[in-house]
Amino acid sequence: MKKEEEEKIYQEAIELFGVTSQKIMVIEEMSELTKELCKELRDRGNIENIADELADVEITLAQIKNIYGISENVEKHKDFKLKRFASRMSELKLNQTKQN
After folding, report:
1. Claim to verify: residue 59 and residue 81 sit in the same structural domain
2. Per-residue pLDDT tens for 27-69?
3. Selection from 16, 17, 6 nearest residue 65 by Cα
4. Residues 58 and 79 placed together within one structural domain of the fold
5. Contact 18, 1 (CB under 8 A)
6. pLDDT in tens, 61-98
């Protein structure tokens, strides 16, 4: 699906169900993903259920970004954090190499 189509659906959902409802929905979907991940850790999980719940979380998170108008800001934060994370991993690898 094209990005423009997705954005239109997200906006329609926000208008139809309301901001508060969609905020509650993202919390519920994150909880359902948490439950599926916990099941998997206990060897009772199902990868298909994890994928399904992850899709729900991504959809509702996109709506939250639209509600607050923060998509670009989130991308900036994500970029910064990924670079910092990569740097930390490089440091850890270097330290592990020195120890061996």
Report:
1. no
2. 999 999 999 999 999 999 899 999 999 999 999 999 999 999 9
3. 6
4. no
5. no
6. 999 999 999 999 999 999 999 999 999 999 999 998 88
Cα–Cα distances in Å, from 68 out to 55, 63, 64, 65, 99?
Answer: 20, 9, 6, 5, 47
**Sequential DSSP letters for 20-76:** HHHHHHHHHHHHHHHHHHHHHHTT---HHHHHHHHHHHHHHHHHHHHHHT-HHHHHH
Q: Which domain holds residue 52?
A: 1-69
